[in-house]
Write a structure and sequence with these properties.
Length: 91
């Protein structure tokens, strides 16, 4: 992850997934379920929309909903430590 991403106040979907160390599919699921707030910005002259997630909203969501299981930490191929993220079931 680059420092430019960390310094931003709002992230694209891809940047949010990278920042949270999750797949884009997981992030898309959270957005579709309404678990994580986002803003939809208009595109340039087309029907395309750009979704942006505020860093403070993503940080708050991760702090409240994600638990890292420290007992299952392992190193990936690059030697970086990873944990398993557990998300509570939506009601």
């Amino acid at each position: 992850m680059t420092n430019k991403i960390i310094e931003k106040r709002a992230f694209s979907i891809a940047e949010s997934a990278e920042y949270a160390c999750i797949s884009r599919g997981t992030l898309e699921h959270w957005l579709a379920e309404g678990l994580l707030p986002y803003e939809e910005l208009p595109g340039r002259g087309s029907k395309q929309r750009f979704r942006r997630i505020r860093k403070k909203d993503l940080d708050a969501f991760l702090d409240q909903n994600i638990k890292v299981n420290n007992a299952t930490h392992h190193k990936n191929d690059t030697g970086e430590q990873k944990g398993i993220f557990l998300l509570p079931k939506s009601t």
